Amino acid sequence: MKVVAVIPARGGSKSIPEKNIKKFCGKPLIAWTILEAKKSKKVNHIIVSTDSPDIARIAKHYGAEVPFVRPMEFATETAGIEPVMKHAYEWLIKNRKYKADALALLFATNPLRKFFHINEAIKIMKKTDCDSVVSVNETPANHTPFWTLVREKNGTVSLFGGVSLKNIHNRRQDFPHPCYARNELIYLLKPKNLYDNPSRLYGEKIELYATDPVYEVDINTLEDWTMSEIKFKSLNKKK
Questions:
Q1: Is residue 160 assigned to a domain?
Q2: Looking at the domain assignment, is residue 147 inside a domain?
Q3: What is the value of pTM for the model shown?
């Protein structure tokens, strides 16, 4: 299976200026994702999709390919990730005659990702022939719809979905099924999903890859950054 890792890295970032290349535990943030992807022997190409010359230069330094400049229409704050992935996939076909069997979407905002997360997702796709593999953590009980409270328009309080509190499960063991939250470690998808209407990462047959929650971070604020560095250092100290 020919797997292309795509690391999206837009230049503009308002919450944390130059976030993707800001030093995180001694290296530019994006470097950690590139270095782990390089450790995976199951990834054939590592593509950084960016509109920034500075990000491109640093990405190349750490071993990624930056074969194109991301078109401006895909580099705005409101642009979705699907057009970015589709552009990378089609660019490789058009310019290199290279057609990927699967695309691994790796967000640089989770620098705790390890190469084995990539390998495990690929293993799941090969075994199940699914359309996508999504990395997740099991959701803590109080964050599931079964114990989430909402205020309705009429002012009454109910469980998510309008379920009366009279029907609340008293024990998490009584939940009808576990719930999962995406953790941004990896989305592995077949390119055909991007041609659905509307375009989506997931496709029809989806497999969940439940990972250890210790690897969950998503850096969007300075507070996220600080806590993620503490977590990163702790994990590496244990190693």
A1: no
A2: no
A3: 0.92
